[in-house]
C-alpha cells in the first residue's frame, strides 16, 4: 500500500463532468490499495473570471485582498470534487489552506510555503477518507489568505507529498507527459519515460509549460518522485526523478525553444569596474528579469554587453538601459526583438565532450547564424533569428538522435533515448 | 463618534459598480466620524450559481462540502468591496468567518453563532481601517466552514454589532424600509419610522421579507438598534428598536398576508387523550412545519382539528395525515389550498380591547368569510379564501388608520401611526 498525492489542473476539473472523472480516478487509486490525497486547481477560466472582477474595481489591487478573491476558485473545486467522490459511494473530506495550516510567508500573490500540518490529513486517511486539498493557497502567520502564484497548485501537490512522505506525486494535466520537444514544431517529438529533476528544471525555464518550475525544485529538494500524466488517458506518463547511471548515457534529453525574449546590446561600454553593475542594477531596480548575459573580451578599452529580457519587459528595459548606458559612458544601445533561443538539455553533457560543437555544426549546416551562446553544465543555448526556430529545433532533434523510432527491449541503453515538452492528449 | 455596523445584501453588491457605491457609503460614514464595520453578502445570483454546480454533481450533497462551496460567494464580495474602498483612497481590510473566529455549531447550512472574537476588528478599527467582514459564514470548533442559512448575512451583521457593542446596525437592501403593508397590494401603504422588535418578528414570520427573522431575535436579545435602509437612496429608513411608551398608542402597526399556505382538516377526531399528539407527531417525523392549529370544543365525543402548512409541504402532509387520521379513528380528511392568512400586528393590542372584534367586523362588512382565527398577544390572524386577499388587506389597512396622510409635527402621538412590508426603492 502506498500514499499517493494526485494533483488535477484546471482543465481536468473544467466542468462537473470532468470532476466526476477525477473522482473515478481517485476511487480507482484507493481501490488499488492506496491512501489518496487529491490537490485540485480552480475550474479552468475561473481565476481569470475573478481577476476580471478585480480589474473592474481597480488596476492596482492590494494583493492581500486579491488573494482573498482568487483563492475562492480552488475552494469551489475541492467542495465539488469531494461531493463527486461521495456521490460515487466513496468517503471524502475537503481541506482549505488554513485548515491544514499550509503556512506561507506574506508575499501575497506569490507566497512561498514554510510549513504544513500533516496531522489533519493523516487523521482523515486513517478513516479511509480521500482527502481533497485546495491547491494554490495558504495562510501567512497572521492568518491572512495567501496564494502561491500561477501554477501554484503543482507546488501544493509536491509540498504535501513531501510533508506526508508520500510514495509519489502525480500531476494530472491535459498533456500525457514530457516530450523531447514541442510536437507542434517537430512531429518527430516523442514522449519521455523518465527525465531528471535538473533536466526538467532547465526545460521548464526554457518554455515547456508542463510543470511549474518551483514544484520541480521542491520535488528535487525532497526527492519526491513526480509523475506527469494526462487525466484523460491511461498512459503511464513521464517520471521526473533523481538521476541514475543509465540516464547519463543519453547526451541530450530534449530540445527547447523560446520566442518570447528580446535582445539588447549596450555598445562600447568602457572596460572599467562597476559598469556592468550599474547597468544591471538599474534593470533590477525596475524589477526587470534578465535571462542570458554575454560579454566578450574588450578591445581598445571598450566592450559590448548583450542580454535578453522577456518581450513584455522589452520597452521598459530599453528606456532604462538608454539612460544607464549614458551614465556609464557607453557609445550606444542596439535592440532586436526578432530572436529565438534554442536549447539542448541533458545530464549526459556533463561527462561527454563535443555536444556544444555538434549543436553549432548542426545549426551551421542549416545556414543558421548564431547570435549569442550561453552554456551551463547540462544545457547549451543559442540565440538565433526567430524565423529559423522550427528549422533549428527539427535539425537538433534529429542530430541528437531524439527522433529515432522507439527502442526494442534488448537495447536498454537506447531506451533512455527519450522525451520533452507537453503534448495535448 | 459612533461604531456602526453596515450590512449590504446581494443586490447592493450585485455588480462592481454597485460595490463602488457601497464603498462611497462606507467612506461617507467614516468621514462623518464613525468607526465602520461592513458585512457583505454574495453578489446576487452567485449563491444560486454555486448551488447549480452542486446540483450537477449530486442531488443529496453533504452539507459540510456544500458550505465550503457556497461560502466563496461572500469571500469574493469582501475582497472586491475592500478593493473598492481602497480605490477611493480609503483604508480597508477584509476578514473571513474563520479570521474573526465567528464560531458556530456544526449544523452545516444553518449553523448558529456561538461566539465572535472582536479583537482583530477592534485592532483594525484602531488603525482607522474600514473592516469588511464576510456575512453568512463561520467556522465550527473543528475549523470546518459553516454557513448560517439564507439571509444569514443579516445575522452576521447583528451578531457583530452585539459583539462590538456597536451603536447601530444598518441593514442595507433594495427596499427603503419597513412598510405598513405590501405596497404592491395596497397603494396606501406607508413606510414606518419605527417598529418594535416584537412587531417585526411577527411581521417577518408572516411574510415580510425585509429582515431575516433570526437577526431580529438576535438584535432583540442584545438590544441592538437595527435600521432598515436602501443602499440606493438617502432615505433614513425604518428603525427596529425596543418598545417605548409612545409606541403603544398605535393599535396596529401593520397588515401582513401569506398566500403560501394550505389548510388541512381532520374531521371527526375521537375526543380522547393522545389523538392530537399522534397526528402532529406524524407530521413532525417528516419534518413538516405546522403553522396555525385550531381545535374547537368537541360535540358528540368527536372534534375537528384544522391546521395550515406551507404549500410546498402540502402533498406530503396530506399523505401523512391520511394515514394518521385512520390510526386515530377520525372520520375523514378535508383539504384546501385556496387560502390566505391575513394578520394585523401591533404592541398596542396588549392594552386595548376590541382590536380583534374590529378586524372581524371589517372583514364581515366586505362580505369576507373567516375560516380560521388565531391570536397572540400582539397579533390577530384570520384565514380566508385566497381571492379576497387584496380586498382584506386594503380594508384592514384603512380600518386601522394606517393609510392616513403623514402626520403634522404638532401631533406627536399620531406620528407613530406608521409602517410595514418592504417596498422596492
UniProtKB/TrEMBL annotation, chains A, B:
It catalyses: L-aspartate + ATP = 4-phospho-L-aspartate + ADP. Keywords: Amino-acid biosynthesis, ATP-binding, Kinase, Lysine biosynthesis, Nucleotide-binding, Transferase. SUPFAM superfamilies: ACT-like, Carbamate kinase-like. PROSITE patterns: ACT, ASPARTOKINASE. It is an enzyme of class 2 (transferase). Residues 404-425 are annotated as: Disordered. Pathway: Amino-acid biosynthesis; L-lysine biosynthesis via DAP pathway; (S)-tetrahydrodipicolinate from L-aspartate: step 1/4; Amino-acid biosynthesis; L-threonine biosynthesis; L-threonine from L-aspartate: step 1/5; Amino-acid biosynthesis; L-methionine biosynthesis via de novo pathway; L-homoserine from L-aspartate: step 1/3. GO terms for molecular function: aspartate kinase activity. Residues 408-425 have a biased composition (Basic and acidic residues). This is Aspartokinase. It comes from Corallococcus soli. The lineage of its organism: Bacteria, Pseudomonadati, Myxococcota, Myxococcia, Myxococcales.
Amino acid at each position: 500500500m502506498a500514499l499517493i498525492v494526485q494533483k488535477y489542473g484546471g482543465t481536468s476539473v473544467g466542468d462537473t463532468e470532468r470532476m466526476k472523472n477525477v473522482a473515478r480516478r481517485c476511487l480507482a487509486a484507493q481501490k488499488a490499495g492506496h491512501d489518496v490525497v487529491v490537490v485540485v486547481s480552480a475550474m479552468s477560466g475561473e481565476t481569470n473570471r475573478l481577476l476580471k472582477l478585480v480589474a473592474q474595481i481597480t488596476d492596482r489591487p492590494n494583493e492581500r485582498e486579491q488573494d482573498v478573491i482568487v483563492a475562492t476558485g480552488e475552494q469551489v473545486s475541492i467542495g465539488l470534487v469531494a461531493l463527486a467522490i461521495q456521490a460515487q459511494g466513496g468517503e471524502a473530506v475537503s481541506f482549505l489552506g488554513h485548515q491544514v495550516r499550509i503556512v506561507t510567508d506574506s508575499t501575497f500573490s506569490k507566497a512561498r510555503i514554510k510549513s504544513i500540518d500533516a496531522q489533519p490529513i493523516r487523521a482523515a486517511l486513517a478513516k479511509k477518507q480521500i482527502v481533497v486539498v485546495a491547491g494554490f493557497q495558504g495562510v501567512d502567520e497572521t492568518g491572512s489568505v495567501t496564494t502561491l502564484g500561477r501554477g501554484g497548485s503543482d507546488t501544493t501537490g509536491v509540498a504535501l507529498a513531501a510533508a506526508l512522505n508520500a510514495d509519489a506525486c502525480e500531476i494530472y494535466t491535459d498533456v500525457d507527459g514530457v516530450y523531447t520537444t514541442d510536437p507542434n514544431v517537430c512531429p518527430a517529438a516523442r514522449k519521455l519515460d523518465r527525465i531528471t529533476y535538473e533536466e526538467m528544471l532547465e526545460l521548464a525555464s526554457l518554455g515547456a509549460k508542463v510543470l511549474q518550475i518551483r514544484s520541480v525544485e521542491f520535488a528535487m529538494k525532497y526527492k519526491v518522485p513526480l509523475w506527469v500524466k494526462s487525466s484523460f488517458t491511461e498512459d503511464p506518463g513521464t517520471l521526473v526523478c533523481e538521476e541514475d547511471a543509465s540516464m547519463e548515457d543519453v547526451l541530450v534529453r530534449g530540445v527547447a525553444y523560446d520566442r518570447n525574449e528580446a535582445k539588447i546590446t549596450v555598445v562600447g561600454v568602457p572596460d572599467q569596474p562597476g559598469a556592468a553593475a550599474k547597468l544591471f542594477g538599474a534593470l533590477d531596480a525596475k524589477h526587470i528579469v534578465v535571462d542570458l548575459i554575454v560579454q566578450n573580451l574588450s578591445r581598445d578599452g571598450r566592450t559590448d554587453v548583450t542580454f535578453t529580457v522577456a518581450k513584455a519587459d522589452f520597452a521598459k528595459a530599453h528606456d532604462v538601459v538608454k539612460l544607464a548606458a549614458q551614465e556609464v559612458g557607453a557609445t550606444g544601445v542596439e535592440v532586436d526583438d526578432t530572436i529565438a533561443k534554442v536549447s539542448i538539455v541533458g545530464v549526459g553533457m556533463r561527462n561527454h565532450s563535443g555536444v556544444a560543437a555538434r549543436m553549432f555544426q548542426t545549426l551551421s549546416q542549416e545556414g543558421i547564424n548564431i547570435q549569442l551562446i550561453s552554456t551551463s553544465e547540462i544545457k547549451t543555448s543559442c540565440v538565433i533569428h526567430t524565423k529559423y526556430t522550427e528549422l533549428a529545433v527539427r535539425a537538433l532533434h534529429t542530430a541528437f538522435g531524439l527522433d529515432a523510432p522507439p527502442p526494442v527491449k534488448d537495447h536498454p541503453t537506447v531506451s533512455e533515448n527519450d522525451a520533452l515538452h507537453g503534448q495535448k492528449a
